[in-house]
Design brief:
mainly alpha, Four Helix Bundle (Hemerythrin (Met), subunit A), Helix Hairpins, 2 domains, 77% helix, extended, voltage-gated potassium channel activity, voltage-gated channel, potassium channel
């Protein structure tokens, strides 16, 4: 029956099916990535490394033509890949037909794919330095595309989604602490350091640095009451950071355990 279906399939449909199996990790019966996706993953890492290196003028000055040529080659390769994914998406029942293709093009991974290649074409002839730097920075989204090949990203998403209520509560607690601590330090220090603590919004920067236990030291209390309160704030900040960290660690551990159990059940079957 399968042989009869393949004989009836047009060359376009057969090629699309083959393309889908090469590009879509979930379409493979064997574990791991296809050779095509492995090559794409290597190109993504290479493109990210070049994007980072070319921001250093000294490095870029060593071989300007190399960076230009490499970017052209990589951009064209990713453009071909993007078009191939749009074509291959038709194998998925959700994305068949013109409406389905459009639906695929606005899916999260497809949008990331598009944003990763657009800067190359948008920066051609660009003269605004800030816009040029911003668009080049967007190219780092290519690194996020590796998530399509990783089960860990799916596990992380499941972990965050499963603990969204606990994380929301911890976020609300963090916001409340920021407001309270910045308000108190404003009362204690405003008259002594109006430039740093002259208003609650100004004091908010100190609260963020202290509660996150970063402690840049650019703004510090000078009164005894302010310094005592700063010490208490730093101690509270340890707990504020530990709360969402513990929630995420437990959720991620549960997700990984569930995946291991599924793998063991699959092997037993």
């Amino acid at each position: 029956m399968q042989q009869s279906d393949s004989q009836k399939a047009s060359p376009y449909e057969a090629g699309r099916r083959r393309l889908y199996q090469m590009l879509e990790p979930t379409a493979r019966q064997s574990p791991g990535l296809s050779i095509t996706n492995r090559v794409i993953a290597v190109l993504i890492v290479l493109a990210t490394a070049l994007t980072i290196l070319e921001t250093e003028p000294v490095v870029r000055a060593l071989a300007p033509p190399f960076f230009v040529t490499a970017e052209v080659v990589l951009a064209l390769a990713f453009l071909v890949e993007y078009v191939a994914r749009v074509i291959a998406a038709g194998e998925d029942p959700r994305y068949r037909g013109l409406a389905g293709r459009l639906r695929f093009m606005v899916s999260p991974w497809a949008i990331i794919d598009l944003l990763a290649i657009l800067p190359f074409f948008l920066t051609m002839g660009a003269v605004n330095a800030f816009a040029l730097r911003l668009l080049k920075l967007i190219r780092l989204l290519r690194l996020a595309r590796l998530g399509r090949f990783s089960n860990a990203i799916g596990d992380l998403y499941s972990a965050v989604r499963g603990r969204r209520y606990e994380l929301t509560v911890s976020l609300m607690v963090a916001v409340a602490l920021l407001i309270v601590t910045s308000s108190v330090i404003y009362v204690l220090e405003a008259s002594h350091q109006p430039e740093a603590f002259g208003s609650i919004p100004r004091a908010l920067w100190w609260s963020v640095a202290t509660l996150t236990t970063v402690g840049y030291g650019d703004v510090t209390p000078v009164t005894a009451a302010g310094q005592l309160f700063a010490g208490l704030t730093a101690i509270v900040g340890i707990g504020m950071i530990a709360m969402p960290t513990g929630i995420l660690a437990a959720a991620f551990s549960d997700a990984m355990q569930k995946r291991r159990e599924q793998a063991e059940n699959g092997n037993n079957e």
